[in-house]
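Standup notes
- DV: blocked on the single-chain target, sequence here:
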Amino acid sequence: MERLSGLDASFLYLEAPCLHMHVAMTMTFDPTTIPGGYSFTRIKGSIAERVPQAPVFQRRLLEVPFHLGHPVWVDDPAFDIDYHVRLAALPRPGGLRELAELAGEFGGQQIDRSKPLWEMRVVEGLAGGRIACIIKMHHSTIDGVSGAALLSVLFDLEADPPPITPPWQPEGSDRPLPSGLDLMAQALVARTLRPFEITKDVLRTSQRILDVRKVRSVSEDRPGRGKAALPLSAPRTSFNRSLTKHRSVAFSAIGLADVKRLKSATGSTVNDVVLAVCTGALRSFLVDGEELPDKPLVAVVPVSVASTGPNAYGSNKVSSMFVQLPTQIDDPIERLGAIRAGTLGAKEEHHALGADTLLNWAEHATPNLFANAARLYSRMHLADRHRPVANLVVSNVPGPDFPLYLAGAEMQAGFPLGPVMEGMGLNVTIMSYRGAMYWGIMACPESIPKVWEFAGAIPLALDELLAAAQLEPATYRNEEARRAALVSDCGDLSATDD
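- DV (later): unblocked, structure below
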């Protein structure tokens, strides 16, 4: 029995009928590399063998009576692999857009909290005989970095690896679930320490806020240093409104080598270039929609936290920075320079505030109050009545630069997908894999109906940056994309037509 951390639990409390707090990933595979040939049973059996190696796959939630404390994780005595891994199919020959439509439908359905918080669909019917997998897991179980790490559990480094030892056993755990009295006793012990912890956090946070103010005042006199964006300072766009329960998905891809060339030529970081590409695509999208604001957009950028304090347990080790995306600037290199200065300032302020501040304060979340407030906010469409907290979420997660195999099938592409939030109907998540940066775009279709137009603008924004920096054109779409057959058989990732 393990109690959820405050941050993990907050992702449960935030969830509402129109706000789904799960992360997902859509992957394409070449089944011709499977020893003995492809079958759904073979794929499911391989996943089943690996489930015991990661407890996250077999644990489920247990609520504390009267919601006196955060829920706890327990081993599910009725775990059933057939519920979690199911077969789906596209009308042949299915392309990336059809796969994205299925991923959006799958992503628009909440996960059943009475079972381990993950589901997978193995998808047949893709062009060229390819298959795909769409997996979703509740955010309370993983963050971006730990989610990428789970790939090492489900995947192999070769098509025909040694057998797993010990073999998987289908029987559920025979350990009894903790009683309600046990859960209440644990919660009450935690509550007795809360006043002391709150006092410490108030004093610590007050000092850190003063440190942030010092950093912001000093940054005004330091060249090349900007400031972090402030919450509730974002201009409103068409995708900054209350959510519906529907979700739409789009994909894109650019070359990691092209991004690194820009990084070296401009003295930026990979993350700066990624944000600049995203900014360029957003500018193009907003110009086409005749809604380009005259001030920067604001992005929430998750930051991985290696916390070692008393609240270091839990699945999520993440904090966030608020970064300006200057879509109002016409020159691509000037935009990149503004982003570089802004991220430097945001990192300094984030360091001054303390990476564990969010983790610490999340521990004090009151389950009933937090959950009821989140549902009321969503039900009353309050996101439409004030300035957006931010415009969108942009997350960049490093992935492996070597091939991965699922039951022998070589993974060709992996598109990560993060949740959209109330008032922020767009989430852009990027993961690198084998020299490519794969972009997964999750959106609320009522807020941003032409999500593929934004996806198509991403490689064009990279082209614009390369040309402005007087560098050679992008090489990725002519090489790696064709090798992965994402262009020739599954639809051109740079296409902007609907």
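- Follow-up: The first strand starts at residue 2 and ends at 3.
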